Amino acid sequence: MRGVRISYLIKHPEYVPQLAQWLFEHWGSILGEETIETRIKKLKAHMNRDRLPIAWVAHTNGQLLGTAALRVHDLEGREDLTPWLGGVFVGSHFRRRGIGAALCAAVEDAARLRRIRTLYLFTLDKQVWYSRLGWTVLGPCIWQHRPGDIMGKAIADGLTTHR
Questions:
Q1: Which residues lie below 8 Å from residue 47, measured CB to CB, with a gap of 6+?
Q2: How distant is the alpha carbon of residue 113 from its chain centre?
Q3: pTM higher than 0.85, yes or no?
Q4: Predicted local confidence at residue 161, as pLDDT
Q5: What does each C-alpha distance from 63 to 4, 15, 22, 154 come to in angstroms?
Q6: Is the peptide bond before 53 cis (omega within 30 degrees of 0)?
Q7: How confident is the model over 69-91, as a mean pLDDT?
Q8: CA separation for the pair 22, 26 (Å, rounded)
Q9: Residue 89 to residue 47: CA distance in whole angstroms
Q10: HSE-up of 33 (CA within 13 Å, CB side)?
Q11: How far is CA 158 from CA 58, 82, 132, in A?
Q12: Could you tell me how far CA 45 lies from the centroid of its own chain?
């Protein structure tokens, strides 16, 4: 998708209400979130540049497209693995345009800049998609009583060339 920009969420607080709505609708029931305010509080905790957690947003011409985050931990019980790519979400009207891949690449670049060698993620059902981006299934795991997989990716030196 042309004209897509990836920016720190902290630079675009105006997107927090829409993001909270999307994420609450998508993951709120699984996480047991009772209100959008709970999700807003989580998003505000990600409004950082220099310390984790950090969230990014994909946007174009004032339109929010999606988000992704770099977190210290993202899966209860697996605090031995760190850091994590988490919260990858693209609005339903903007999917299948490379936005999710661009968000993942931005988080990977940020990890490289921080000299992080390995990233982890957890997914319930996007294993094939992440595999196409170079991620490897490390093993099965249960999250909120649902089966999924932990995946990992070695972060090589050098930055990707995404825009």
A1: 8, 9, 10, 13, 55
A2: 17
A3: yes
A4: 45
A5: 10, 9, 14, 32
A6: yes
A7: 92
A8: 6
A9: 16
A10: 19
A11: 22, 20, 20
A12: 14
